[in-house]
Specification:
Distance between the termini: 15 Å
Shape: elongated
Structural class: alpha+beta
CATH architecture of the largest domain: Beta Barrel
CATH class of the largest domain: Mainly Beta
Radius of gyration: 21 Å
Number of strands: 8
Helix content: 10-25%
Largest sheet: 8 strands, antiparallel, barrel
Strand order of the largest sheet: 1-2-3-4-5-6-7-8
CATH topology of the largest domain: Porin
């Protein structure tokens, strides 16, 4: 994840304005009454950095953000489809893992599948994630391109793909669904995610 903690795209506008006003007022009062000399811009920047990096999903500060906490490890199934070298449609299903690393200003989605022999596929890493509410306003869509480095062992080259993932929160349960397609050569692949449930809130990944 990039160390760009002052990207404010996930903060509510009113929260940004209110926080800046409160902090600026507090700094001015501290200087007036107690003679504490603080640089307003530098102090606000530091406090925002701490909130965005460390405190964004705590009870005290999560109200400031319009996105949910998507972070954690999700496991479920990936159903894939492609056309083989002789023109036959091939359909299969594998265990699939997504690990979402998130803070108050950034979001990265790492994915891999688990083959029949238990080994992991090459990893896919998101390249820019767009977050929006679903049309009913009850859930979120995570839309992004990703890069997969390919596998020399399996004989397929690096490729890009696009995923549209729906995030649904049911009480304490968090679930992902959706689909993907790729520009993989020589045959494009596509598929869907089946019932990916969050199994851990660990903000890291397993590969």
């Amino acid at each position: 994840m990039k160390n760009n903690y002052l990207t404010l795209k996930y903060l509510k506008l009113e929260a940004i304005i209110g926080l800046i006003m409160v902090l600026a007022g507090a700094i001015i009062l501290a200087k007036y009454y107690w003679g504490v000399s603080l640089a307003i811009v530098a102090t606000i920047t530091l406090i925002l950095s701490i909130i965005l990096k460390k405190l964004w999903n705590t009870k005290a500060f999560k109200w400031m953000f319009w996105v949910d906490d998507f972070s954690g490890e999700y496991r479920g199934k990936l159903r894939f489809k492609y056309i083989d070298e002789i023109g036959n449609v091939q359909i299969g299903e594998r265990e699939h893992v997504k690990c979402i690393v998130q803070d108050g200003s950034n979001l990265v989605i790492n994915s891999f599948t688990i083959r029949e022999d238990g080994s992991k596929s090459s990893a896919s890493v998101s390249k820019g994630v767009h977050v929006e509410h679903t049309s009913d306003g009850n859930h979120f869509l995570l839309i992004y391109n990703y890069l997969n480095d390919g596998s020399a062992e399996q004989g397929f080259p690096p490729h890009y793909g696009t995923e549209v993932v729906k995030f649904i929160k049911k009480g304490d349960e968090k679930v992902l669904s959706g689909g993907y397609y790729t520009n993989r050569e020589p045959f494009q692949t596509r598929g869907e995610f089946i019932d990916l449930k969050r199994v851990s809130n660990n903000n890291g990944h397993a590969f």
